[in-house]
Amino acid sequence: MISLVKKWSCNLWMFFLFGMLISLNNRVSAQPFYPTYTVNRIAGQNSFVGMEADKSVPPKFSDCRTKLPQPYWKGRHNVIDCYWRAWEIAFSNLKSIETGSGFVSPYIDPAFNGNIFMWDCSFMTMFGKYAKQVFDFQGTLNNFYGKQHTDGFICREIREIDGTDVFASYDPSSTGPNIMPWAEWEYFQNFNDTARLSKVLPVLLGYYRWFRDNRSWPDRSYYSTGWGCGMDNQPRIPERLSPEFSHGFMSWIDINLQQILAGKLLLKMDSALNGRRELKDIKEDVMYLESYVNGKMWNEYQHYYFDRYRDGTLSNLKSIASYWALLAGIVPEKRMLPFISHLKDTSEFSRLHRVSTLAANDRHFNPDGGYWNGSVWAPTNYMVLRGLTNCHQDSLAYEIAINHLNALVQVYDSTKDLRENYAPDKIQGNGKHNFVGWTGLTPINVLLEYVFGIRANVPEKTLLIDVRLLDEYGVRQYPFGREGVLSISNKKRRYRNERPSIQIDSNIPLKVIVQWPGGRIVQNILKGRNIL
């Protein structure tokens, strides 16, 4: 009798558990989580959400090569070979959208793990602009915009196969860095495309405000994680916490600087569109954050910007992250030379291969690279170069650019390979092979913009040629905006201060500024052949 009671009790208990599992399963199937979104009015103007998908097939490199910019550099055929190899790999990574992914545009794949990444893709559009005539690399970002949530959130990593977010929004590693405004502004500077600017501005405003409301502390400074900031394993937080996934209760210097940069660029975008929006909150944000960073994240003794711990003390780890300050334009004049001197210091960032992402006198520095513990990365180098340009430090920008390009090409010469990152203290590539990826920035952008010194400002119809090389060099089929095509030839010089002899063949009139260590000239050129 007792055994029958026990058996009946056991069966009843099993029946109860089975019922609970069915109930739970039904709940999970019906609603995986409770939707806590608050609708963002600006993000609600996002025209990429639900737009008709472009299902076209991207072109092949073999069909496009003759239509791309054609650089030449007498005596440096290896550099030009590396340039073309970067394009070949990049085109091999172009993809059509997967059915059911919800993506809206063909795109360049970061070629990392089958997902698109917010900051990888932003940087890839920056070299992709030079191939606009054959493929719209900028459309890659459309797939992030099309996945914006109703509250403004955009996940930093999205699966290509089905378009799902890799992270939930409230995960500290779920998004960032907020550099899509910079990517769009770079594109605008090269194409003066106000139609696109008008479409992307509400998306970027919605994301900026989500980021402000969900990634800031009570003192209005910003936080992230190693994964969220993109520099995965750099040991910036207290040692007992995860450098990859913990925010460490810190104010992160790069995230604050990127938010300043984003705010300033959003204001510029609105101005380029004739000031259609009310952006007083962003103006106030920028002013406050500039004051905060310069007042609370600067170490006067070390002449450097640092992460700030929650007790108000500053870190002593010198990360490349601090050089977003140059691009954000927040460094006071009296601090500029001491701050950039670290880039010239061989005990810190000026190693055999420049620029290391961690100062070499830090105990965590790895001479082989150690991923973000010293490695040289194309995107952070490009950020530094753009920042130096922003602060009129053209000589230093050239020194870093030629060093970086030469070191990368040395690796390419021996391996015929482009790598994910590079060692700072030896000529060595690290990480993924045939990586383009953002590594394409170096053989394309760094070559054209900093070694050749050719930089366009299409909205102002101005072309700058900053001549540093003594060799004969140039580029044919250089795109200037949507209609301009230029051929630029620079003759060999004998010494640095000698005035350059430049020939420009153009199908449009524009203003050309030529500068070199010995002088500067400004000339309006006409259609046809022009000798400067």
Structure in words:
The chain is an alpha+beta fold and 532 residues long. 37% of the residues lie in helices and 13% in strands. The strands form 6 sheets. The protein has a 5-stranded antiparallel β-sheet with strand order 1-12-13-14-17. Strand 15 (510-516) and strand 16 (519-525) form a beta hairpin. Helix 14 (394-415) packs antiparallel against helix 15 (442-451). The model is unreliable at 1-18 and 20-24 (pLDDT under 50).
Task: Provide a compact summary of the structure.
The protein has 532 residues and is of the alpha+beta class. The protein has helices at residues 2-30, 61-64, 77-92, 118-128, 142-145, 180-191, 194-214, 226-229, 253-272, 280-296, 324-328, 333-340, 378-390, 394-415, 442-451; strands spanning 70-73, 94-95, 107-108, 115-117, 157-159, 298-299, 304-305, 421-422, 429-430, 454-457, 462-466, 473-480, 484-490, 502-506, 510-516, 519-525, 528-531.
Q: What characteristics describe this protein?
A:
4-stranded mixed sheet; 532 residues; 5-stranded antiparallel sheet; 15 helices
Question: Topology of this protein?
Answer:
Layout: H1 2-30, H2 61-64, E1 70-73, H3 77-92, E2 94-95, E3 107-108, E4 115-117, H4 118-128, H5 142-145, E5 157-159, H6 180-191, H7 194-214, H8 226-229, H9 253-272, H10 280-296, E6 298-299, E7 304-305, H11 324-328, H12 333-340, H13 378-390, H14 394-415, E8 421-422, E9 429-430, H15 442-451, E10 454-457, E11 462-466, E12 473-480, E13 484-490, E14 502-506, E15 510-516, E16 519-525, E17 528-531
Parallel strand pairs: 11-15
Antiparallel strand pairs: 1-12, 2-3, 4-5, 6-7, 8-9, 10-11, 12-13, 13-14, 14-17, 15-16
Helix pairs in contact: 4-6, 6-7, 6-9, 7-9, 9-10, 13-14, 14-15
